[in-house]
Specification:
This protein has two domains: 237 residues, Jelly Rolls (Sandwich), CATH 2.60.120.260; 58 residues, no CATH class. Helices cover 21% and strands 32% of the residues. The protein contains five helices and 19 strands. Strand 2 and strand 3 form a beta hairpin. The radius of gyration is 26 Å and the shape is globular. It starts with 5 loop residues before the first helix and ends in a 5-residue tail after the last strand.
Length: 317
């Protein structure tokens, strides 16, 4: 299967497949809470003696020499320092817990603002699971799964925390150009319609991989984790739109940053319209489900607190 967008696109997709920028899969975070020892209990044992069961009586500890006492004091100081660090990190995590609640559109309750290039047909069955949005597009340049009305997916996305995940499930029955099955690059794009450079909007975007009858004929989850929503520079793998170089390459305007776009999103899209490319008339038969945005726990904080690690998978059903 080949795209019809010329040498430039062919080279881009070839380089994409030959690099580490492979389709990003569904990320799941698994963590376990490990109970810590209370320094206060240890301190009381040393100071007042260890309690004997339920008698309420205490026995005084055996006298210790100065060297042993010094070692105990050092140990208590280290325990207090370690616990202070843990409590501080836990406080940061609890603060992060005040971020906006995760949201997912399953289409069981209607469109919730989503459409596929303006079409909003919902199939009651055949989703992943249940209801899903079904797009049948004929003689169009691309498929644009977008939302510009549901405030859960718009506005200041940093309210979800410093690290977030954007995700969508896709099933591709057919993408045809010139009566041939072809593939299309699939990106997530965050659009801000504030632009002073003569472009329709300013955006940041990331390539999730490709969709086609072969690549995503079964339900496939595409997602990306934004590690730092407050970053000024574009993260690795991200592109910008809203201005261009002397050679016509799309770039982020000089007066905009990655964080400034994320803080003022007017439209969220999962789309085949890659900035800087043009396309021929194409027919699409695709379904989408489980479009979500969620807060991602900070891995470093979890590790320092003794929590478990991160497991990333690309779900396929």
């Amino acid at each position: 299967m080949i795209p019809e967008i010329g040498v430039r696109c062919t080279k881009f997709l070839r380089s994409f497949r030959e690099t580490s920028l492979q389709p990003v899969g569904h990320f799941g975070y698994i963590y376990m809470r490990r109970r810590g020892h209370c320094a206060h209990t240890r301190r009381n044992e040393l100071r007042y003696g260890k309690n004997d069961g339920y008698t309420g009586k205490s026995r005084m500890p055996e006298p210790v020499d100065p060297e042993t006492a010094n070692r105990q004091n050092v140990s208590m100081t280290m325990n207090r320092s370690n616990n202070a660090t843990k409590y501080a990190l836990l406080g940061l995590m609890l603060t992060a817990g005040t971020a906006a609640a995760d949201v997912t559109t399953t289409f069981n309750n209607g469109t919730e603002g989503w459409s596929i290039s303006g079409r909003d047909t919902i199939d009651a069955t055949g989703g992943n699971p249940g209801a899903n949005m079904h797009g049948l597009l004929f003689d169009v340049f691309g498929a644009d799964v977008r939302n510009n009305t549901n405030t859960d997916f718009l506005g200041d996305l940093t309210r979800y925390g410093s690290s977030i995940e954007l995700s969508i499930d896709v099933q591709t029955s057919s993408i045809q150009f010139d009566n041939r099955e072809v593939y299309r690059e699939f990106i997530v794009e965050l659009r801000d319609y504030d632009n002073d450079n003569g472009f329709a909007y300013t955006s940041v975007w990331f390539s999730l991989g490709t969709i086609s009858q072969e690549d995503s004929g079964d339900w496939t989850t595409f997602s990306v984790v934004i590690d730092d929503t407050f970053a000024d520079a574009l993260p690795v793998g991200w592109g910008g739109f809203g201005d261009e170089t002397d050679l016509g390459e799309p770039i982020l305007p000089d007066d905009r940053t990655f964080a400034s776009v994320l803080s003022s999103v007017d439209e969220l899209a999962f789309t085949t319209f890659v900035p800087g490319f043009f396309f021929g008339f194409t027919n699409f038969d695709i379904q989408v489900d489980n479009i979500s945005i969620r807060t991602v726990p900070a891995p470093s904080a979890l590790a320092l607190l003794g929590f478990g690690g991160i497991v990333a998978t690309r779900r396929r059903r």
